Amino acid sequence: MNFLSFKYLKEKKDNYFTQDVDFFTFLISSFFFVFSIFSFNTFLELNKIILSLGVFLYFIVSYYLLYKYSDDDRKNISKYIFVSSLISSELFFVMTYLPYSYYVNSGLMLIFTFFIANFGRESLSNKIDKVYFRKILILLIFVVLLILLTAKTV
């Protein structure tokens, strides 16, 4: 899933390149995982609650691998992991009812996952402020509206 996290398990990440590669590997792996789960839901029509539970467990492991190296706020990491995973799985559950294809749903999940993970990473390092949050939120709304307005319904 996240190869660099296993490789650098005992080392502290001071290199920004490995942090960024970890983040983008997380985003790509979450996109492909959610894409496969959406396609399973479309073709096999599995139970949405069980699929959401699987997505929740996936995101717990993924967010743990993403956040475990941030030394800035060690006591709140488990809270961030749980809340981020819960929000991601709830978004997945809601998106299973959208009338779009699984390509569009996976793209939307990727955008929301990027927002959640980036916001969590910045808030764990205490670098977040209102201006930064507003910029990211406006970008999120713009990209989501762009995707939803140009997507065809199934």
Number of helices: 6
Largest sheet: none
SSE run: HHHHHH
Q: Poorly predicted ranges (pLDDT <50, ≥5 residues)?
A: none
Share of helix, binned: over 70%
What Rg is obtained from the alpha carbons, in whole angstroms?
16 Å
Integer average pLDDT: 81
Structural class: mainly alpha
Total beta strands: 0
Distance between the termini: 31 Å
Total domains: 1
Question: Beta-sheet strand percentage?
Answer: under 5%
The gross shape turns out to be globular
In words, what does this structure look like?
This protein starts with a helix and ends with a helix. It has one domain (15-150). The protein is globular, with a radius of gyration of 16 Å. The longest helix is centred in the first third of the chain and has 29 residues, at 16-44. The protein has helices spanning 3-7, 16-44, 48-67, 77-95, 102-124, 130-150. It is mainly alpha-helical and 154 residues long. 76% of the residues lie in helices and 0% in strands.
